[in-house]
Automatic annotation (TrEMBL):
Gene name tied to this protein: nfsA
Protein's organism: Vreelandella sedimenti
Gene3D superfamilies documented for this protein: NADH Oxidase
EC number: 1.5.1.38
UniProt keyword Oxidoreductase, yes or no: yes
Any one GO molecular-function label of the UniProt entry: FMN reductase (NADPH) activity
Name of a matching Pfam family: Nitroreductase
Family classification: Belongs to the flavin oxidoreductase frp family.
Protein name as annotated: Oxygen-insensitive NADPH nitroreductase
Length: 243
């Protein structure tokens, strides 16, 4: 395998970082690498907020569920889906802009995720560690107010960046046969059962936060209750009406 494929297969979430700062020039290079990601119709429907204010970082850490590494990593970014910039650009040409379409929400969210993943891979190629922070959607309105996000912009997730101060194991993924289908969708119960056995061994043996569970049981909290039921109303208020 080439170095890029090996790097992609070695991803780990890093939650402990050294005090070493990230050079500003490198951070800018990472953002530019992010901009190189595929984007629907060249819309580039994203904005990245580099949260430097320490008090704001600490507040976001609490809003995201007490994730203290948000406050202690070298740099913290919030990736936002942004339909404000492209719709206003189109409007300035005389277009009769229709806002609030579901497709606009999908385009902006997908664009943002693709851009962020490019940043993540570029960061890891430079020896940095990253951790996505979906917990900012626990309190998205408060995060939006703190970052002064305008209408038609919403925070999708955060990202901690820094030089790692830990060496966690790579978490196993589902077998390729479970996610790659030929021609038609097929059931994958056997692969999931096998993967549960793999994940149980991983959780029992890993060097930190070991526990007796597996993949299927670990998913239970995500589906036992409604997950972030506030998001639909929040998105509608942000101008993503899902028409």
């Amino acid at each position: 395998m080439n170095d890029v494929i090996e790097l992609l297969k070695s991803h780990r979430s890093i939650r402990k970082f050294s005090d070493r700062p990230i050079p500003k020039e490198l951070l800018l290079e990472l953002i530019q690498a992010g901009q190189g990601a595929a984007t629907s119709s060249h819309v580039q429907a994203y904005t990245v907020i580099h949260v430097k204010n320490q008090a704001n970082r600490e507040q976001i850490a609490e809003l995201a569920g007490g994730q203290g590494y948000i406050a202690t990593c070298a740099d913290f970014l919030v990736f936002c889906a942004d339909m404000k910039r492209p719709t206003e650009a189109s409007e300035r040409t005389g277009a009769n802009v229709v806002r609030g379409m579901t497709e606009q929400l999908l385009v902006a969210t997908v664009d943002t995720a693709l851009m962020a993943q490019n940043v993540a891979v570029a960061a890891e190629s430079e020896g940095l560690g990253i951790c996505y922070i979906g917990g900012i959607r626990n309190n998205p309105q408060e995060v939006s107010d703190l970052l002064r996000l305008p209408k038609h912009v919403y925070p999708v997730f955060g990202m901690c960046l820094g030089y790692p101060d830990q060496e966690p194991e790579v978490k196993p993924r589902l077998p390729v046969e479970a996610v790659l289908k030929e021609d038609y969708y097929t059931e994958d119960g056997e692969q999931v059962e096998s993967f549960d056995t793999t994940m149980q061994a991983y959780y029992r043996a890993r060097s930190s936060s070991n526990k007796d569970t597996d993949w299927s049981r670990n998913l239970k909290p995500l589906f036992d209750n409604k997950l972030r039921p506030h998001m639909r109303d929040f998105l509608i208020k942000r101008g993503f009406e899902m028409k």
